[in-house]
Every structure is written in structure tokens, then in C-alpha cells.
User: Which sequence fits this backbone?
């Protein structure tokens, strides 16, 4: 804890001076949204074992926020740190104003001592359902430079230390050793580092290296936080890999690295055991051992300045800039589509925007490492998230649903979405539309596609509207569907909610126009999507408003339908108030 003698944090000072203001938090357990239902009660753990668990590291993405237990911990005065789960730290374009402001507000709300997170690719393309992933950065000097600039930018904006963490993987792209890469980031950003010793053990194993390789020249004085977690070996294509499953079985190599680093990290403030999804009786032995290993390590002392540790010279010091985002997009496609991975390995099917250097990096990858996915977790996570927005359609498809979902990662729509940073949920809708032929399936798919599009639309007009003009909100869609589609969807939803099979569809002649509206969740109206049938001539007017309609056109429309223009304007005012129309 800090006291009256602890200097205030100043992001513009050098690291060796800033680190003096960081509190000694000691040992923590990690936490992600909703973990209580799968593991330990963190509040009970803190109450019953305060000598073993001293703070909480909260894993957060802005989509889900912070759950009740983590808030209760912070509100009860428990120290915390904030671990982001939704930032591509090596991508400057991912540091948008909305994310930076939202993350700062949440970190302040829980009183986080600093912000940290795996410095890799947390989402492919936009922050959207189905896009979650965790890929390591491309281990090239130019990528380290860009990441360092982003770390510095966040630190100075938030006045909080930002600690990049080495992420896990079964395959790595780039010519630098993982430790050399993060040493560069630390030096160029002049920042503290979070060393995950479990992730490092996985990296050394997959690279065929001894656990302590490259640690001799690593700047351990920059290590502010250490992560420890369990891992499970598994076999794939004759190779042994380690799944970073956050269990309680800690690999011997992980302990070896931890012991080595503890002796060489004078600025260490925190050690986190990532294991909240385990039973209490399995956690306690690990915490007891961590207590034994770290006892006496967290003692305030004069900050140790930059020491002159030998840095291993890199033959790639002058290497050119790499399109790391293009490489990661291609790698993600390889992970999800084995046939595509084999084509890349054979030198085919590259994104044409990739240069020769990027192609060589990808072509050198070990195919077993690319495809290793125990329990098919990567694919299941992707498809499960997408399926959440197409529940009715997939239920109507019956046994065909599995085939549709499993075929998507091999589809042109999937590859185009990843290549061009499109939304995978929308790409699946386009893929599925080519696989079904009308009927109940087609109607429900069209309705859920419209909802998916509206969720991702903008509640602000793309261009400035002249006074008196109106345009349909980007959070709305107008679709023409068979009559009775909404009634059919309502009955299907009720059946799914009660665990029943879908009722038979009622065939109605003709079509009708349906308005789909999803209010912007930033306005506090999450999960309030609505769909309604439109009566003529309202449907016609709203269809015109997809382009924008001015007062003169609305006046002519009113007179053509026997309505006073003033009455029509009053009617349209309710659409503006509801956010269906934008305008004055």
C-alpha cells in the first residue's frame, strides 16, 4: 500500500522514478466476468484467507463490464488492477476515443493501481461478437516500436502505468525471441512489464528451447507484475503442446522461470495466480506455495535504476517495417480453416496486399502449431458467439444448423470479412442466405440479419442534415417479409425459451414491411431491440427516409395521402423521439 511518503505518480517521469509511486500489492487472484459460477467465490476467499490473497486483478472488456463480485471487492476497499481483454495494443487505430474513455472510467471506478493486459490481438477486425481471439504480436522490431508508442500514449492519457504482457500461443510469427521483443517494448516505451511465466514456459517449449533461454539479457528490473497459471500438455500430429488452461497444475518449467525471475526483479509489486475458475481446495496449495516463494520480496526500498545488463545483439536491428495486422489476419484465417492453412504452407492463397517478407514469415510456420486447438475451443468460441444472433434461424434449420455453422470458416464470406475487417456476424448471415431457399428458414434468417445489421449501425447521420430534413437511423432496417413472420418469430422464441421444439410455420399469402430498431446501448437501452409491422403509407414514407426526405417532399406526401402536413410532422416527431428517424 502507498503511504504519505510515497511520491505521486507522474507519467512523464522516467520508469525508475515512476515505479517508486506504485504500491506493493503482493499476491492476487485473477477475475473475469461471471467466473463465480464456474469456480471460487473471491469474496469468501478474501474473507477466509486474507494472509494469502491480498488484491484482485479484474479482467475486463467494455462489452460486459465488471460483474457484481468484482465491484463488491472494490467497494469493500480491496486493492485492484485492471486487465484489459479487448485491446490490440500493437494497433494504434484500436486506441479509439470511446474505448480509451470507457476503460479509464471503469479502471477509476474500481480504484485500479495500474492497467495491464496481453499485448497481442484480442479481436480480429472490429470489437464485435465472434471476433474475440488472442493471438501474439508479430515478433518484429517495427511492431515493438508501434506497441511502445501506444503504451506511452495510454500512460500519458490516463496517468496510470500500463504494463504489456507476453501472451500465449502454439505458434509465433517473427524473427525476434519473445523476450527480446518485450525488452524492446519496455525500453522504447520506458515502461514497466508484466511477465507471465506460464506463457513464457509455453513459448520456450513450442520453440524447443530451455525454460531460461534469453532471460540472462532480459531487463528484469522492469518487471512490475508476474502472472502464474496452470497448463495441460496435449498431443497433436505427433507433437506435444501446452494448453494455457488456467488450471492448478503448474508446469515445472513455470516454477523454474518464476524462481529465476524473483531473484532478479527488484521493482516487483505483484504476483497474480490466474485460477479463479478452480475449486478452493485446489487453489489453496498454490497460494501457500506462492506465499512461501514471495515472502520478503515485497519490501519497499530505494528504487533501483536502470542496470547495465547485457543485451543480446539482434541481427535484425535494421529490419524493415512489417504489415503485422495483415499477417495476423492471415494467421487467424489459417487457425480457423485448415485447408486455407495448408494452401498458405504451399505458398498459395495469400492476401495479395502482403509483401514477400510477410509471406515468408507465414510460410515458415509449423503447421501443427497453427492447427493445434484442443477440444476445438477456438472454433467453438467463434461459432457459438455468432449463433447467439441467429438462434431462431438455426433452430428452424434443425440438424442442418451444425453443417451451416461448421461450413462458415471455409466460406468466401468468412475469409473476406477477416481480410477486410468486416463483421463476422454479418458475414455469416450472407453465407447462410446462400444456403437456404426461402420458407420459414429464409424468413427468420432475413429478420435476424436485419437485427444484426441494426445493432452495428450508427445512431448518427453519415452526413450533416440540412434544417428540416430527416433520415432513417442506421440503427434501423426496413425489410419486406412474408406476412406473419413476426408472429412466427414470437412463437419460435417462446418455444426456445421453454425448451420446446419450434411450432410448424403458418403459411400466409403476400408480404409486409417490417421496421427493425435497435436503440444505441450507449443510451442505456441495451437489449431493447424491437420489430414491428408497418401499415401503409407509413412504410412508404420510411422507405423514402432511407435516403433522406425534406419538408417539401413530406408536404407533398401528406397531401397525396389526404393528410395535413402539420399532422404528418407531429406523427413523425414520435419517430424522432424514439430514435427511428434522425433530424430536427
Assistant:
Amino acid at each position: 500500500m502507498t503511504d504519505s511518503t510515497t511520491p505521486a505518480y507522474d507519467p512523464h517521469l522516467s520508469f525508475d522514478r515512476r515505479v517508486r509511486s506504485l504500491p506493493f500489492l503482493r499476491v492476487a487472484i485473477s477475475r473475469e466476468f461471471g467466473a463465480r459460477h464456474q469456480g471460487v467465490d473471491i469474496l469468501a476467499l478474501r474473507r477466509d484467507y486474507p494472509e494469502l490473497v491480498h488484491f484482485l486483478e479484474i479482467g475486463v472488456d467494455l462489452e460486459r463490464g465488471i460483474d457484481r463480485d468484482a465491484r463488491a471487492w472494490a467497494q469493500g476497499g480491496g486493492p485492484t488492477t485492471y486487465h484489459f481483454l479487448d485491446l490490440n495494443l500493437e494497433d494504434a487505430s484500436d486506441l479509439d476515443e470511446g474505448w480509451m474513455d470507457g476503460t479509464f472510467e471503469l479502471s477509476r471506478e474500481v480504484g485500479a493501481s495500474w492497467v495491464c493486459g496481453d499485448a497481442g490481438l484480442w479481436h480480429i477486425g472490429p470489437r464485435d461478437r465472434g471476433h474475440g481471439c488472442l493471438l501474439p504480436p508479430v515478433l518484429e522490431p517495427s511492431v515493438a516500436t508501434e506497441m511502445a508508442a501506444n503504451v506511452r500514449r495510454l500512460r500519458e492519457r490516463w496517468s496510470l502505468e500500463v504494463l504489456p504482457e507476453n501472451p500465449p500461443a502454439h505458434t509465433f510469427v517473427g524473427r525476434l525471441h519473445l523476450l527480446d521483443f518485450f525488452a524492446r517494448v519496455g525500453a522504447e516505451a520506458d515502461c514497466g512489464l508484466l511477465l507471465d511465466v506460464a506463457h513464457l514456459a509455453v513459448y520456450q517449449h513450442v520453440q524447443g528451447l530451455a525454460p531460461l533461454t534469453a532471460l540472462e539479457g532480459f531487463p528484469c528490473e522492469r518487471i512490475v507484475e508476474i502472472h502464474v497459471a496452470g497448463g495441460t500438455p496435449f498431443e497433436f500430429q505427433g507433437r506435444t503442446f501446452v494448453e494455457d488452461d488456467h488450471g492448478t497444475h503448474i508446469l515445472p518449467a513455470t516454477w523454474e522461470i518464476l524462481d529465476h525471475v524473483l531473484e532478479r526483479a527488484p521493482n516487483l509489486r505483484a504476483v497474480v495466480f490466474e485460477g479463479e475458475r478452480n475449486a478452493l481446495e485446489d487453489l489453496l496449495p498454490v497460494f501457500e506455495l506462492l506465499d512461501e516463494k514471495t515472502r520478503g520480496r515485497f519490501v519497499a526500498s530505494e528504487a533501483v535504476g536502470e542496470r547495465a545488463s547485457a543485451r543480446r545483439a539482434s541481427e535484425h536491428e535494421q529490419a524493415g517495417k512489417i504489415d503485422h495486422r495483415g499477417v495476423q489476419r492471415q494467421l487467424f484465417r489459417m487457425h480457423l480453416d485448415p485447408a486455407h492453412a495448408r494452401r498458405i504452407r504451399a505458398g498459395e492463397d495469400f492476401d495479395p496486399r502482403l509483401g514477400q517478407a510477410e509471406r515468408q514469415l507465414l510460410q515458415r510456420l509449423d503447421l501443427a502449431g497453427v492447427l493445434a486447438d484442443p477440444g476445438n475451443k477456438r472454433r467453438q468460441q467463434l461459432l457459438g458467439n455468432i449463433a447467439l444472433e441467429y438462434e431462431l434461424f438455426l433452430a428452424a434449420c434443425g440438424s442442418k444448423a451444425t453443417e451451416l455453422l461448421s461450413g462458415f470458416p471455409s466460406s468466401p464470406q468468412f475469409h473476406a470479412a477477416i481480410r477486410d475487417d468486416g463483421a463476422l456476424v454479418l458475414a455469416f448471415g450472407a453465407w447462410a442466405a446462400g444456403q437456404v431457399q426461402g420458407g420459414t428458414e429464409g424468413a427468420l434468417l432475413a429478420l435476424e440479419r436485419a437485427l444484426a445489421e441494426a445493432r452495428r449501425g450508427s445512431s448518427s447521420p453519415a452526413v450533416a442534415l440540412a434544417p428540416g430534413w430527416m433520415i432513417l437511423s442506421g440503427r434501423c432496417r426496413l425489410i419486406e417479409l412474408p406476412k406473419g413472420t413476426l408472429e412466427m418469430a414470437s412463437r419460435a422464441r417462446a418455444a426456445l425459451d421453454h425448451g420446446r421444439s419450434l411450432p410448424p410455420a403458418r403459411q400466409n399469402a403476400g408480404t409486409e414491411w417490417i421496421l427493425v430498431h435497435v436503440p444505441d446501448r450507449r443510451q442505456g437501452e441495451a437489449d431493447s431491440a424491437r420489430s414491428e409491422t408497418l401499415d401503409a403509407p407509413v412504410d412508404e414514407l420510411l422507405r423514402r427516409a432511407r435516403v433522406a426526405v425534406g419538408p417539401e417532399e413530406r408536404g407533398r406526401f401528406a397531401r397525396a395521402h389526404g393528410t395535413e402536413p402539420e399532422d404528418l410532422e407531429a406523427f413523425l416527431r414520435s419517430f424522432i423521439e424514439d430514435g427511428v428517424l434522425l433530424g430536427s
